[in-house]
Amino acid sequence: MSSSPNHKDHAALAAQFNKDEARVDWHDQTLWFVRAKRDRAAAQVPDWETLRDTASRIKDNVLSNLSEYLRQFEAAATRNGIIVHWAADAQEHNDIVLSILRDHSVDRMVKSKSMLTEECHLNEFLKDNGVEVVDTDLGERVVQLAGEPPSHIVLPCIHWKKEEIGQLFHKHLGTPEGNADPQFLTHAARLHLREKFLTRRAALTGVNFAVAETGEFVVCTNEGNADMGAHLADVHIACMGIEKLIPQRRHLGVFLRLLTRSATGQPITTYSSHFKRPRRGQEMHIVLVDNGRSTHLGRKDFRNSLKCIRCAACFNTCPVYRRSGGHSYHTAVAGPIGSILSPNLDMKQYSDLPFASTLCGSCSNVCPVKIDIHEQLYKWRQVIVQEGNAAASKTAAMKTMSWVLSNPGVYHTAGKTGRWFMLNVPFAVKNKWNSWYLQRELPEPPKQSFGQWYKKNRK
Amino acid sequence: MSSRDKILATVKNNQPGPRDLPPDYNSPAANAPDLTPQFINILEAIGGAAFLVSGYDRIATILHEQFPDARRILTSCPQLTAFAAGRTAAAALSAAEPGNPHSLETVDLAILPAHFGVAENGACWITESQMIERVLPFITQNLALIIPRNAIVATMHQAYDRIAALEAAANTSAAPPQAEGFATFIAGPSKTADIEQSLVLGAHGPRSLTVFLVDEHLSDAGFF
């Protein structure tokens, strides 16, 4: 992940990913396989559309009353014996986590999946401050050992082939060279990580849902790594964005039915753990993080993206994501939803992302909370151009286009010139400098324009 | 101004006008006559095993056959304490050391009651007071859960109704209310598909999950 202002944009990073065509096909098909599983799971629930609608309306209510729900949650969680912290931004979040660890003289910690801590770059921060963090989700451990960020919020190492993971584990975990059997590699990781669970005194987890009414929070995993970490540690720190709240416990019924079916096509994750009170002798902390969310809430056209429950269905269905890979989005949350969330964090740095879409609308159709993702992508483009953050080439091309289209004389001449070039000197347009020619064959140029044809045939 | 007050003030200022909650949701699929077959089919599809049994003797027999090598067995079911102790190697006999969850690392099999099952996803709801230690259902190599056969609800909506009823009952009973500080739905064995989407059972938690559905009216021959 590049945080430098000179990072490559989505198109450049996607071009890099696209160099290996066979790999792109494999990546595309793997994600489509997950999308197909989602479709089958959704089709088995007769009231699927009503559920989506209900979830979306519950989230409307959450956003409209968020300040009250936050107070209610804080009071209930505190009554339950949980220590509640508030972080205005990523830096404050990281400082809070570090100070809790220092209070307990902890310099080694296990962590389960939390995209929020990716967003805050917590691992790097803790490393710089002498704290070792071990990611315990298998996919996250793979990318961590490789020194990469996750490329997908649910399937962090979806871009890795098993042979490469075999090689990585051979290097770091001492598995036999050349063994790429998923069963064997998973077992090796199980042994490697059990030792970490048993020896670390602090565990950090993410939060899938927090319930204002009861002050409890729910963490969903298939592997059981969040529970292994939290129940063995003396200190459990749970980090959540302020938008993860839901009003009442019974609403979990709606969201847990939608979440995993949308994510992987399973009826539910193996574990849906409800943390309400620390266990005897344990300390439990919750860090409520804003980091731009409260500002985002004020953007009428974009606030709906805060309904997101991080299922990644929009990733798996997106024709651009599937063929460009998660790292091309250079942000913690990639894919269509990341492309509408990230510009809120930094409009300049992420100005390319709303353009990384065909606007086909498939993302909005699979979204379990009915976020109008593709419409927001389109609206972000307008905001970005109006605020002068569009790429110079794009702005120049649009200005030229606008001049040509608003001057009929120029338009006709341009058309005529274009057809003449394509007919007589095709190499003038069929070359590597014309980005329209790079991935496609140009059509046969027509002998005449429609205008000319109409003039001749109007009788 | 603290970060808390700043965040709350900005949120309050920026949140849209009031939007009502939708009416409480109830799934139309809630009235199926017998939910047992659906529960068993889904549980098997997600990698778990299910047995319909007449009682605890039958459970002991099946577990004996299924886990011949299990050395350390823990249970919170009084009816199975003798079975667990009889099978447990003397050295490991000491049950959970209170307050030391790490001592559970060597457990081969945990046999625990759960409150109820959910037909639509094969999950069982288990609360802290049934677990011995919170980490036990996760750290054990194999897990067996026991629920009454008639304690299966159709969907997650009925599941949360049931949870509310359990809590209300605990609060009104004569005994001091049990402080359930942790609870979880468990659906199948621990699993991952992070390596090229190939499903592997036994990621960090149990490699197997067996659910026993107890029906006292059943003859001993009638299990599947």
Kindly list the characteristics that best describe this protein:
heterodimer; A: 459 residues; alpha/beta; Rossmann fold; six-stranded parallel beta sheet; four-stranded mixed beta sheet; 10 strands; globular; disordered N terminus; B: 224 residues; five-stranded parallel beta sheet; 6 helices
Describe the structure.
The complex is a heterodimer of chains A (459) and B (224). The model of chain A is unreliable at 1-5 (pLDDT under 50). With 459 residues, chain A is an alpha/beta fold. In chain A, a hairpin with a 5-residue loop joins strand 5 and strand 6 (217-221). Among the domains of chain A are: 45-291, 3-Layer(aba) Sandwich (Rossmann fold), CATH 3.40.50; 405-457, no CATH class. Chain A has a six-stranded parallel beta sheet, sandwiched between helices. In chain A, 51% of the residues lie in helices and 10% in strands. The radius of gyration of chain A is 25 Å and the shape is globular. In chain A, helix 9 crosses helix 10 and helix 16 (335-345) runs parallel beside helix 18 (373-386). Chain A has helices spanning 10-17, 21-43, 48-64, 66-79, 90-103, 115-119, 122-128, 138-145, 162-173, 182-199, 225-232, 251-263, 293-297, 313-317, 319-324, 335-345, 362-366, 373-386, 392-405, 408-424, 435-438, 450-457; strands at 83-87, 108-111, 132-135, 202-205, 209-211, 217-221, 235-241, 245-246, 271-275, 283-289. With 224 residues, chain B is of the alpha/beta class. Chain B has a single domain, classed as NagB/RpiA/CoA transferase-like (Rossmann fold, 3-Layer(aba) Sandwich), CATH 3.40.50.10420. Chain B is 27% helix and 21% strand. In chain B, the strands form three sheets. In chain B, strands 1-11-6-3-2 form a five-stranded parallel beta sheet. Chain B has a four-stranded mixed beta sheet with strand order 7-4-5-8. Chain B has a two-stranded antiparallel sheet with strand order 9-10. In chain B, strand 9 (191-192) and strand 10 form a beta hairpin. The longest helix of chain B has 17 residues, at 156-172. Residues 90-94 of chain B have low confidence and may be disordered. Strand 9 (271-275) of chain A pairs antiparallel with strand 8 of chain B.
